[in-house]
Design brief:
Radius of gyration: 19 Å
Mean pLDDT: 82
Strand order of the largest sheet: 8-7-6-5-4-3-2-1-15-14-13-12-11-10-9
Order of helices and strands: HHEEEEEEEEEHEEEEEE
Shape: globular
Number of strands: 15
Largest sheet: 15 strands, mixed
Strand content: over 45%
Low-confidence stretches: 1-49
Helix content: 10-25%
Oligomer: single chain
Length: 264
């Protein structure tokens, strides 16, 4: 009898030897039939006592495609995510149509099982910023008035790293949708994301089995979104598509990733 070509699932007895780099190597294995999704939560939880449903510190490189001001473009984007047991930083940067540079940053605390943003900034033609005040329960914007803050509130970057935990909660509770407040750099909106079935997608990193989430527009100015999460416990945002009301759209697909050092 031929031996299986696939390694056996990692068991709890191996969890103490799983390193952050090794975990990411497993997470980045996109080919169908690989170890994607096979690593137990205990293996991830062994990394510095980390929350098992938060991605380890990672740099993700995406192929970017979109439409802006009637012009179609192709570019690349870099999403850097770094954390320790109590805080995180995220940065998304891209250069679009040669002359236009976009940069978003988020930083905040890790409070129990949740991310709690403190500052979110969006730098394009100008810099806009949202500041979160959990004590005063307000969000302040540099270009508009305040908005109410509540504990689940995320920003346009932190939401990608918080959603895997919400996906797991929804599955456990047999829910078909996820609702949470999400702040841009100038306003707060409610994202209601429908959970779809598993979907196999192709990316520059290979083929993945993914969990899909879809946000339909409720208001004219809403951003429609479809998100694909995969890898170990669906921690990786593999593909992201956003559409605005003015025919502007953006889609990014994961090309590569590498581990980063944790925050000091």
């Amino acid at each position: 009898m031929k031996q299986s070509q696939h390694p056996p699932p990692i068991t709890r007895s191996l969890s103490a030897r799983v390193t952050r780099r090794g975990c990411l190597q497993l997470a980045s294995s996109g080919a169908m039939g690989s170890l994607v999704g096979a690593v137990p939560l205990m293996a991830l939880a062994s990394i510095n006592g980390a929350n098992p449903l938060l991605l380890p510190s990672t740099e993700l490189i995406y192929d970017l495609e979109g439409m802006q001001d009637g012009l179609r473009y192709n570019a690349s984007a870099t999403l850097r995510w770094q954390r320790n047991s109590t805080s995180y930083q995220a940065e998304l940067s891209a250069r679009i149509l040669v002359v236009f540079k976009r940069r978003q940053t988020s930083q905040g605390r890790i409070a129990g099982n949740a991310l709690q943003p403190t500052v979110f900034s969006d730098e394009g033609k100008r810099i806009r910023q949202a500041t979160f005040d959990p004590v005063g329960k307000r969000i302040s914007y540099t270009e508009s008035g305040d908005a109410p803050w509540s504990e689940p509130t995320q920003d346009r970057l932190s939401v990608y790293f918080m959603l895997p935990q919400r996906i797991a909660q929804a599955r456990f509770n047999k829910q078909t949708a996820i609702t949470l407040p999400v702040s841009s750099a100038n306003s707060l909106s409610t994202w209601r994301l429908r959970m779809g079935g598993r979907e196999i997608i192709d990316t520059p990193m290979g083929q993945w089995s993914t969990q899909t989430l879809t946000r339909d527009k409720q208001e004219v100015d809403d951003t429609a979104a479809k998100l694909w999460f995969g890898g170990v416990d669906d921690l990786l945002p593999l593909r992201i598509r956003l559409e605005d009301s003015d025919s502007t759209w953006l889609e990014q697909r994961l090309r590569s990733l590498r581990p980063l050092d944790d925050l000091a």
